[in-house]
Amino acid sequence: MSTQFDHIENMSSIGRDSTVMENNMSEDHYNNWPNDKGFDPKYEQRDPVELSVAGQIPAYAAGVLYRTGPGKSQLQADNGETLRLSHWFDGFGQTHRFQIFAPENSHTSPRVFYNSRFSTDDLIEHVRKTGSLDEISFGQKRDPCRSVLGKVQTEYVPQQTPSSSNISVTLSINVPGLDPKPDELTSRWGDSQGIRTLYAKTDYNAFKKLDPETLEPIGLASQIILHPELSGQVSASHARSDPITGDMFNYNLTLGSTCTYRVFGVSASTGKTTILATFPATPAYLHSLLITEDHVVLCVWNAHINPQLLDSSFMDSILPTDPSQPAVWYVIDRKHGKGLIATYESPAFFCFHTVNAWLEPSKENPAEVDIVADIVRTDNSKFLQYVYYENLISSLDTAHTFQKKRDDSFRTSFTRFRLPAVPSTPCTDPKKAVVEWSLCKSLSPELPTMNPKRVTEKHRYVYAVTFRGEATLTDGIMKLDCDTQQVQLWACHGQSPGEPIFVANPEGNSEDDGVLLSVVLDGMRGKSYLLCLNARNLSELGRANVDGAVGFGFHGQHVPTTQTTYVFLTTKSPLHTLPLSTLQPQLIAQEQEGTTIVTTEMLAKSHGFNEPTFPCKKISLTIHSSLEALDLIAAITNRLKDHGISTNVVSGYFHDHIYVPIARAEDAMRVLEEVAAEARG
Ligand SMILES: [Fe+2]
């Protein structure tokens, strides 16, 4: 098992410039906006506890919200010294889990449970004993004396365990290709709970497997498992997934005398990994990438790496942005095996987070297709200097000084690029990418999110946290309407929010019909809460209070519980008089006696159909409908019948759907699990 950036794994150590930080500690918090407790949380809650809830959280937000990111930033070593990390990205990871249960009826409140787990216990224990961090570092500042000591200490290399690897930037459930033998049959039940595995990822080629409920680190994996050619050290924390197929896309970068990118895709249905393109290019720190319906878009922006410098720290290897060097956009075909089909160049910039990309007819020639790409951009990679603890912790004089001298080069903006006239066959001549607009620099947005259903389609709304400068870290949640360029802001003094995750209202008709879930530190109380905002106007709907400070994390994922109730309704009204566009029928059957419509209970009632029948749960078989599936359907319905569960089977062209009475839905799922287990033998 490789460690993060193998060739620098022997670096030492935890910085001893911490005394400077201690001496600079002041009672004053920058702008009276305390955030210290978010950078060195002591609070761990291994067993789920119920949180007190104020206000309301909509039923459709029921499910699990996972969060991960840095936890502890300092340790007491056995030799009595306090060891402090210097870069926020190196914080010892912690994972959080909020489980939201829908209200049982309109008169009850939602219930929210919380548990968390530090995810690097073995690494922390090693550091305590040795007083040194031999493992990787993103940006640890080193004491030269400790460097020498570190080289001696590396003769002892601790055994890699899941909790000795600090991997805690992004989280993914059910990562394609990683489970040695995917449970194919159970994965076919489209409406099952759905969380089979949970993985943490980072900007190198490793994955950490976590127990989805206890969050205990239980395994390590490498991209080499996906494909033997994926042996390079560097990758993106933010792999991209197709919103329809679930196929996952990322890159793997091999550092060496020649640096090689391999852009790859993993099929969600087969687990097979395909190398889509292999090409040499300037090595760079690329935290995210983009996909369109037909492409993977890898932009090598201007955080170029000098691999020769990697024996000190990854930060040290990232070169200052050279404005004379273009950013280069590589466009790779992901559907037809055409490989790298185009490159585009744009003026130099730096980016952590892409937002979305999609295809549009070219403005100048509608017969051609452009790629439109939205990202969060800064002028250069200096932003990486911002996120040292000494610049972030509100009580540190160094942070006060940094904020006062912080200039526009540390500010981000939403930027829309256009890559005109994407060729359909490989083209070697570089083309020009153009900036269409750049917005919100005064708000300095980061950690962008959007309605995930819009991935690879044109989106209208994007959400983010703000770094306006009111606080040393985040100081608000914003929403940008890309069409009107209007901005909305949620901000409360002393409240430091994390990434706002959008959860769509499944009954909603507009892109922003949903809620934002964000873990916020109340700096005044020193405790955190899960905030639920109406995504339309950023008004607060409710919050669930945590009895401790949740560390400022990076990213998370919300996995909804599928509890939609469907109903069958009948009407004698002519079809053309029915409000079908808003009733959103799952099924329409016209018979001599009348018309039957299957839709959700909520939509039926909102349209005045107050006496629908057969309240039921829909179980979709995600295999393609076919004659071969008939035997499977018959076996399932017979087994359900044996258990006294009535069914109504509906076959679309693509899939088969089984409607079972809502009261027997859980029983039905258990029966399906039995069928799946028997099929596995
Ligand atoms: Fe990120």
From TrEMBL:
Cofactor annotation comment: Binds 1 Fe(2+) ion per subunit.
Domain DUF2241: 563-617
Positions that bind Fe cation: 238, 287, 353, 555
InterPro entries per record: ACT-like_dom_sf, Carotenoid_Oase, CASTOR_ACT_dom, DUF2241
A Gene Ontology BP annotation from the UniProt entry: carotene catabolic process
Keyword Iron among UniProt keywords: yes
GO molecular function: carotenoid dioxygenase activity; metal ion binding
Reported cofactor(s): Fe(2+)
Residue ranges of domain CASTOR ACT in the record: 619-674
Alphabetical keyword list: Iron, Metal-binding, Oxidoreductase
Family indicated by similarity: Belongs to the carotenoid oxygenase family.
Protein name listed in UniProt: Uncharacterized protein
Organism: Penicillium nalgiovense
Lineage, top ranks: Eukaryota, Fungi, Dikarya, Ascomycota, Pezizomycotina
